[in-house]
Write a structure and sequence with these properties.
Layout (H helix, E strand, L loop, with lengths): L2 E5 L5 H8 L10 E4 L6 H11 L8 E7 L8 H13 L6 E6 L6 E7 L9
Antiparallel strand pairs: 1-3, 2-4, 3-5, 4-5
Length: 121
């Protein structure tokens, strides 16, 4: 059974993407973007913030979705679950990275605090 936790976003936005995409923690095939490309997510998040003049305050939301080792999931299935979960947030740019460096597989889901369609936070 998965546990979902919102993580306090204390890290600056330019640090969160290198952390969740660190090659020691994941594999390139386990990193996906929704409404953005993972490689350029930082610039894309900032472009939306600038477009709607929403550059202050919370910059992103960070969710960790952890699975029990007893769940017997492959990293690919866990990643698919993370992508399906992220779809519930609609018109937000999102990066999903599945970490496989621990005995439990877990997804890092980071999404922009600004909606790319209407500019709402």
């Amino acid at each position: 059974m998965a546990i979902v936790k919102f993580v306090t976003s204390g890290s600056p936005m330019n640090n969160i993407f290198p952390y969740i995409m660190k090659k020691e923690k994941t594999d390139a095939k386990l990193i996906s973007g929704i409404n953005c490309m993972p490689e350029t997510a930082l610039e894309e998040f900032r472009a939306v913030k600038n477009q709607f003049r929403k550059t202050d305050g919370r910059q992103y939301w960070h969710i960790v979705q952890s699975f029990s080792p007893d769940d017997n999931l492959t990293p690919e299935i866990a990643h698919e679950i993370g992508l399906k979960f992220a779809e519930y947030f609609g018109n937000y740019q999102t990066v999903v990275a599945t970490h496989i460096d621990r005995n439990h597989i877990h997804n890092h889901i980071v999404f922009n605090s600004v909606n790319f369609e209407n500019g709402k936070k």
